[in-house]
User: Fold these one by one.
Assistant:
Number 1:
Amino acid sequence: MAGVSLRNVLKSYGELQVIHGVSMEIADGEFIVILGPSGCGKSTLLRMVAGLEEISGGEIAIGGRVVNELEPKDRDIAMVFQNYALYPHMSVYDNMAYGLRIKGLSKEEIDKRVQAAAAILELAKLLDRRPRALSGGQRQRVAMGRAIVREPQVFLFDEPLSNLDAKLRVQMRGELQALHRRLGTTSLFVTHDQVEAMTLAQRMIVMNAGRAEQIGAPLEVYARPATTFVASFIGSPPMNLIPKDGKLLGVRPEHMEPCAASEAMLTIDVDLIEPLGADIIVYGHVGSGESARVAARLPADASARPGQLPLRFVQKNTHWFDPATGMRLEP
Amino acid sequence: MVERRPGLTLLSHLVLVLGVLIVAFPVYVTLVASTQTSEEIVNQVPMSLAPGDSMLETYRVALTGGQTSYGGRVPSVGPMMWVSLVMAMVIPIGKIVISLLSAFAVVYFRFPFRGLVFWMIFITLMLPVEVRIFPTYQVISDLQMLNTYAGLTVPLIASATATFLFRQFFLTVPDELVEAARIDGAGPMRFFRDVLLPLSGTTIAALFVIQFIYGWNQYLWPLLVTTDESMYPVVMGIKRMFAGGDAANEWNVIMATAMLAMLPPALVVVLMQKWFVKGLVETEK
């Protein structure tokens, strides 16, 4: 196992630059999630680590060895693709064994590794089947099995859960976590789903338009977003950003609290109410002239109705941003 | 169209039965004629549609050649069938190998003038053998390939159609599969052999059936490049059996030869039908 270093990694297609210098040190055994909206370059970054995309500038090192010029097979990585990319004409066993056979491992060694991976992933009964005869979740597990048997230094996951239905996704998320605890292999996981990122990551990179907006532990990123992009990308509904005194005031919806009109720090004109069972989310405008939308998460027993709603919040839960650059302003 | 109308059902059955009759009747006449003697066919006008009883004798004569009951001499069909079989095997296999490789190159490798190469292949789709037949003949003749198996088959092997077909198929293979193979450490030829080839199985089968029949049915090209009787394919053999001038035709032997000539393509279609249909309608992915 090994750490991964990204040193000012750049990617451009001709004139068009899509990754603008990402740097990060990933420790051995860490589970890193690369999070961002579609088109932000997160998959490209992962594919550069895998060796499927050329690196236009900067360096990527795996286990201290610069891999810029190495073929994917020589980088000691394994990748799980979004659509699984299983070989359709091979059995589950052969799908997992294929890479090992090319490596020239002995039959016994291959069998040992495949059986071990199948046991971990509960695929033992399916080894003779073709991918076609498997469900989505099972295919996903085969794809992971194919990665595990290689015993790589780094696992790369490219949105592996996004083709699964919601329930299965939650289950696979749990299995992924268990797997990482068990194997302790350094993992890079690309997703656009903030829930996946928050639950799986030890640290995450939030990317936007080819830049790493913030790198940090999920709760740290949630508690102290570095930019307005991160603030509005993470959290559902996103952080409210209200222009105030030439700056942007950020307050998360769950930090808003209804109160008496005399104590109000903010009064909104409620026009949309979404009762979710566990809580109620109300949306409204601030004041009359300003157009900033504000959402507040209220307890389930709160009485919410359209009209004026006074809200308060405590100072420690406020964030300030520069409206021009979007950067966080430390108080 | 799912409609319950007895009239429509009747009509569609009528049309189908009619279609079958149009196709099947000539084959039946051929079969019946091959079981009668020449005298029976010629003396009875129109000929009887009931099977005769000299089937074994007729087919023996057709296969081995020699003296017929009618007094004429016919060449043996056996060697002609062999020539046809060689053509019908070499052409599809050669076509499939070359087309697979060229489609593989065009789809998976980035090389200078790739687009140009593809379009050049594509444009030759518009040039069937008949159009370039004289220059091709000149080349084969200059290469001393007249009256050889190579002369019969090589010019018919290059195929834009098959290349195009495989290209289209390769384009539908997901990129991730290529990438997964790269990560697994499979080089280009290994990927070709282990992944692309098995996936193309049904397409190959369909192409083989079509091209087998194409090779078997060649007439014009063998007519040009063969002058030696031992190199005549069976389709030419049938034509040659029609006696010119006053001599009588040995209809029973001609019909038997026709039946024999029909047999291998029919067998190939029947035996490979399952794969053939699969290859044309679906891909295993």
Note: The first helix of chain A runs from residue 42 to 50.
Number 2:
Amino acid sequence: MSATVSNNGNHNDIRLPIYMDNHATTPVDPRVLEAMLPYFTDRFGNAASRNHQFGWLAEEAVETAREQIAKLVGASAKEIIFTSGATESDNLAIKGVAEMYREKGNHIITAVTEHKAVLDTCKRLEKYGYRVTYLPVMKDGLIDLDDLKRAIDDKTILVTIMAANNEIGVLQPVAEIASICRERGVLFHSDAVQAVGKVPIDVNQQNIDLMSITAHKIYGPKGVGALYVRRKNPRVQVAPIIDGGGHERGMRSGTLNVPGIVGLGKACELCMQDMPQESKRISALRDRLKDKIMGSLDEVFINGSLEHRLPNNLNISFAYVEGESLLMGINDVAVSSGSACTSATLEPSYVLKALGTGDDLAHSSIRFGLGRFNTQAEVDYVAERVVETVNRLRELSPLYEMAKEGIDLKKVAWAAE
Amino acid sequence: MAYSDKVLDHYTNPRNVGSLDKNSDQVGTGLVGAPECGDVMKLQIKVNPSTQIIEEAKFKTFGCGSAIASSSLATEWVKGKTVDEALQIKNTDIVKELSLPPVKIHCSVLAEDAIRAAIGDWKKKQAANSAAPVAVEAKAGN
């Protein structure tokens, strides 16, 4: 299925198709896969089997993984609970706190740009009588800390704000948010799925009380994740959302996915090891991609703060060109778009909408998520294909034509159906 | 979501991309959709005044691959038809020809609207001209 392209001016051959959608998921690192395999074959025991070697070996591997994850985020191993992934971790954190702290209050604060795993969970809690405040974001994608301060009241039990956004890569001021929460005696949860392993996280330095982690965004397998639950200062409790045996200190019942957990652990260990150099390398690649694209095209806009951003994310809107048609034109490159046409619901990206980006630019956006396995040659190829395709599509675009004629598109009375 | 071969073909080799002189009496221009919706189609026809046959058609589209294909196909289909024949083109014909999935049916609807809008614009011009015969003669040099 893959073709090879020789890149003139670069000695590396590129294999097509190129994957640049690492916010959606990542390939499993061969070192991670290697670590996992024995737990499918020889060491297949149930980690909860306390009476024989098979169980002990599995348990040992799980505990090693716990340590590896804890180390990456500055926690202690006892504070790591294994789940089936970040969606479950988000559900457990939010519903678990909501139930446990019901006597204290029923108000939860989150932000409009959160992942659906958080937003939909909050919506469900609203049905059960909880009150949820959805904080807006500023044009750069960050929340206004004063909005947060004003929103907290004496019934607030939880603030949940993601560390890094999956669409625009914007980093929220987690330490500041947490310190406001601490001051007011409110728990702080962060969906750190996109941040862990890419930017330094320390749950103690940053005063985070609960944090969601997943394996498949950091070169680990799908179907496994973790929830960090603080044990000291303060001791946080969550009511389980899954019952049946009391595993994971009663917080998450169910036989542990040992191979998956081993994979998650190894993935975290690799991130810890590689993060300093890898961040620099990927950030340089991202900037190269950005500069090449913006250097060759006009009317191109970055969505979200460039300063407070993941090193591997680039989210750009190409005026007058629709996102899905652009993706079709670069069909040997895997990226995604905020266009309505690419979504199952035919709604444009709600994250871009929250930034105040017009719907037209939301439809024209492309998200690039660079990763561990992307190379400079790939970046150069992608930049070229993007520029070429945008130019071609602008020739096809009535909006480009009108703009070139000097027509202000915002003043046109469109005959929308 | 895989695209049908025909959609891919129209996307890669769109037919009749471009513009006609919107000020010409023989040209009808339809502009439908809205940037906020992610779909805007401009479809233009040049009609022979005596035979009412659409001799030329051009399009430009801001939209997904299916929208581009639908409008490209529309220009192909209207060429050689009379204005009244072109009004018979239904979006369902476009859906069938391009094998559009349910989520893309609205692209075909917009293309049908674009055809109607272009024809409507041309008809308006004819009505305006027949009401002012002096004006027509003055423009005869077009």
Note: The first helix of chain A runs from residue 30 to 36.
